[in-house]
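We emphasize that the prediction below concerns an isolated chain of 94 residues; any contacts that depend on oligomerization or on bound cofactors are therefore not represented. The input was used exactly as deposited, without trimming of termini.
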Amino acid sequence: MRAWLAIAVGIAAGAGIAWWLARESPEARQHTQTRARQATAQAQDARPSLYRWRDDAGVLQITDHPPKGRRYERLDRDMPAGIRVEGDRAGPSE
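Result of the prediction step, given as a token string:
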């Protein structure tokens, strides 16, 4: 019976040591999370985008560079297939 107890204690001790050696310090974990956030931001910036905005005359413009001093909406180029139409619906025809 003592052999089984020695084996169980050995396995538990081995698992504890493996856990202790494999854990990350809080500083290392924070560094890893910061790098992951930076990589995500860089990946989003690297995606090709279009910018939708209206000029002084109210005409809708779509360009590959954002306008200066205006509100704009960023559109990712790899949007799902299909056409989405927004705006006023035509009234019933008479």
